[in-house]
Amino acid sequence: MQLSNIKVPSQQVSFLQAVRIGLxxxxxxxxxxxxxxxxxxxxxxxxxxxxxxxxxASLIGxxxxxxxxxxxxxxxxxxxxxxxxxxxDVACLExxxxxxxxxxxxxxRFMAQALVKAQQAENVRKTTIVTATSGDTGAAVAxxxxxxxxxEVVILFPEGKISPLxxxxxxxxxxxxxxxxxxxxxxxxxxLVKEVFNDKALVQQLNINSANSxxxxxxxxxxxxxxxxxxxxxxxxREQVVISVPSGNFGNLTAGLIAxxxxxxxxxxxxxxxANDTVPRxxxxxxxxxxxxxxxxxxxxxxxxxxxWPRVEALLAQGLVGRDExxxxxxxxxxxxxxxxxxxxxxxxxxxxxxxxxxxxxRSLQPGEYGIFLGTAHPAKFKEQVENILGSPIxxxxxxxxxxxxxxLAVSMNADYVQLRQALLALDK
Length: 429
Ligand SMILES: *Cc1c(COP(=O)(O)O)cnc(C)c1O
What we know:
By secondary structure, this protein is α/β, with parallel strands linked by helices. It has helices spanning about 15-20, 40-45, 50-60, 65-75, 105-120, 135-145, 165-170, 185-200, 200-205, 215-230, 250-260, 280-285, 310-315, 335-345, 350-365, 385-390, 400-405, 415-425; strands at about 1-5, 10-15, 30, 85, 90-95, 125-130, 150-160, 175-180, 210, 240-245, 270-275, 325-330, 370-375, 410-415.
């Protein structure tokens, strides 16, 4: 598979090169210019791991053998993605059964597998991963790479702006996982990471890679659970599927659009955002006008300049996705809480991110359609909020209970590039 840089089309790389470099010249994103044809009905009859191996092998092409890809998928996708019915025509695709209880485990763990292959292919001895997290990426990346030889991980997060339990999932590991609590918001953390990638000398010296959702391996991995969702829909309703995606950086939504481009029957996708509604406003009036990021209940979606949007634009420009196949819906704080209470009254306990997607879905769903909203995190990850909003206690799963009492090892810093650069150089011993 040949990928090209969306901003600098002359920069062409293979899949493994894209995995290792992360972000291209001029901060351009790598993206395929052609898509494989898949035998979708046959794929839908397969198991999750077998089907995902086929999809990823077709996307990657001959750079890795089918057996290699299957072994990577088996290691990465070691937990299910069940479709939990909420009503007759609505279900939640639960993507939170991995080790850090969020959908980012799928992308993070597959990327860890892909990076091993990329290091082998290019004889790289050591890689430094620098990533910004608005909550769940940090945990997924930290766990995926924890104690992996030849990899140092540096995670930036907005201090005090993510849930305490989210934070504990990645700041308590230590060893090759280094965490920096930045006194700023997520967009500022993301801007710092972009500065790192613009610093060519540093990138070369430390072999720096980003594990953000801009990494193509994460995006490819996420395509697979859309197929898993449709495979669980009763056959007579498969032509009527509408999927609502709680969106922040829009990696998840991009993966859904790619699944559709690959032939998966999805009638339409809904990009559901919180009050950080750059995309819903843009979709309506055509003006790209990010506001200052505001803090919301669905904090992993507090992003006003989503970094995967150029990939969505590329699919639109190539005519692969039509305007009527995508909707963009903003759900405010009041409706998010209302949505959680409505779900609870239907017997389904959820959390703010999924609740945003559920509300957007309910506003859009037509009679005869089958709606799926993505459950991107386990409700216990947002225990305080969920208990406050629903007024009833929820239990901590074992993964969270274990870290809740451990001390954070994060180091505080200002949003200052010079300070960050020094911290990174200190790792190169
Ligand atoms: C990261 C995250 C999102 C947003 O996903 P994007 O791919 O960045 O749009 C939504 N919900 C949760 C729980 C997340 O952690």
